[in-house]
Amino acid sequence: MRSKLFVPGSRPELFAKALAGDADGISFDLEDAVAETRKAEAREAVRGFLKNVEAVGSKILIVRVNALDTPHFAADIACVAQPGLHVINLPKPETPDQVRAAADAIERAEHANGVAARIGLLLNIETPKALRDAAALAAAHPRVVGLQLGLGDLFEPLGIDRREAAAVRQAMFAVRMAAGVAGVYAYDSAFANFRDVEGFREEAALSRRLGFLGKSCIHPSQVALANAAFRPTDAEIAHALQVLAAADAASAHGVGAYVVDGRMIDAPFAASARAVVANARRLGLLPAAAAHPPTHHE
Q1: DSSP, res 34
Q2: In sequence order, what are the beta bridge partners of 27?
Q3: Which residues pair with 259 in a beta bridge?
């Protein structure tokens, strides 16, 4: 999920258009993008769309619900936990008990609504306490699939400038390490100034170097930027194919570590190469002749 496009739940006229676009994930927002007086209307619009949407291909459908401590959370979950929804995005959890409470609410809604495939839970890390305890939050329930950084909500109450590169890097690193401890993915924050193309590119490039899965987009113009930032480059694909071919040769000779293009390669690097090749295939970036390199390590 290189890109995830936010769509206000109160704007149903945009739902189909967003789904037809190039974002890998569509996040229907019931929280910040919806006025208090339109919460019920928005959740019903999202429910109706989820119940009636047909083939979505490889798109990932997400709903950001309102936080647990709001009067809207229970109704949001009961309404939008529908067949076809892949992930519920939970804002501002701060304790493992809150994560478990959200997971239990989703489970009840799944049973009530006839959902067969388990809906994942993506946790927003948006407060100092959540950042400190992010690994424990991620490990609180098997339903958790990832941690998503919310830099605006995290920094604003503390008076930290959202453009302060050192603070951004430190928060990203902390979330990535917490996600790594729990074995879930890390997802990057939204970048509010959609006219600042270079700023978005720079932040996306940093988050990719730090191992994030992709970046949130608040405007359709940011989707192409995120997709470009998080796709494997031609050089990375070529190197990964070389590594996998060398892995076969090494395995046949009982060798555990070997050299490719001057780099020492062992099992973790081969696993990374397999992930690059799998992602390249999914995105249609491999030519037909290279689609099945001669290795059983994929």
Answers
A1: S
A2: 6, 62
A3: 264
Instruction: State pLDDT tens for residues 191-237.
Output: 989 999 999 999 999 999 999 999 999 999 999 999 999 987 777 77
Q: Are 205 and 230 in contact (CB under 8 A)?
A: no
Q: Decide: helix, strand or coil at residue 20.
A: helix
CA–CA distances in Å: residue 240 to residues 184, 258, 260: 23, 14, 10
Any residues with CB less than 8 A from the CB of 127 and at least 6 apart, and which? 92, 94, 153, 154
| pTM assigned to the model | 0.84
The DSSP secondary-structure symbol of 5 reads E
Strand arrangement, sheet containing 185-187 = 185-187, 144-149, 120-125, 87-90, 60-64, 25-29, 3-8, 215-217
Distance CA 184, CA 205 (A): 20
Query: What pLDDT, on the 0 to 100 scale, is given for residue 287?
Result: 62
